[in-house]
Design a protein that fits this description.
extended; alpha/beta; 4-stranded parallel beta sheet
C-alpha cells in the first residue's frame, strides 16, 4: 500500500535556540549569574540548546575556558548543552588543548568518506 504526501509545503518547526551574548572580561560573580542565566533560558524556553555568542569576550584565555566549562556544566545539569557562536580560532585551539569539545555554529560535521569514493583519480586508472 502506498500513500501520497499531502499537497503543499511541509510544516517545519522553525524554532531557534535562545542566545546568550557574552561580553567583556567576566568576573567570578558574573560566572555564577551567567550559569543561572543558562539554566533559566533552558527552563523558560524548553530548548535543549543555548547558543553562547562568544565574539565579545576578547582574546582567549583560561578564564574563558573556565567560564565555558561552567556554562556547559550548568546546561548539562538542566538537560541540554551550549553551542558557541563567533568563536575565535585561538579559542578552538585552547579548548582542544585542554580537552573540551563544544558544538560550534557554522562548523561542518566531520565524517568518514563514503565507501568506494576516491579522492583523486589518476589518468589511466580503471573505472570501478
Amino acid at each position: 500500500m502506498t500513500c501520497s504526501p499531502p499537497p503543499g509545503l511541509q510544516i517545519v518547526d522553525a524554532t531557534t535556540p535562545p542566545v546568550l551574548v557574552l561580553a567583556g572580561p567576566v568576573t567570578r560573580e558574573e560566572v555564577t549569574r551567567l550559569s543561572d542565566g543558562v539554566r533559566a533560558l533552558m527552563a523558560g524556553t524548553g530548548a535543549g540548546i543555548v547558543v553562547c555568542d562568544v565574539g565579545g569576550l576578547g582574546p582567549p584565555g583560561l578564564g574563558i575556558v573556565d567560564l565555558l566549562a561552567r556554562l556547559q556544566l550548568a546546561a548539562r545539569r538542566a538537560g541540554g548543552r551550549i553551542r558557541l557562536r563567533d568563536a575565535d580560532p585561538g579559542l578552538h585551539t585552547l579548548l582542544d588543548l585542554v580537552g573540551l569539545r563544544f558544538e560550534v555554529e557554522g562548523e561542518v560535521e566531520e565524517r568518514e568518506p563514503a565507501l568506494g569514493v576516491e579522492k583523486a583519480v589518476e589518468p589511466g586508472d580503471p573505472a570501478v
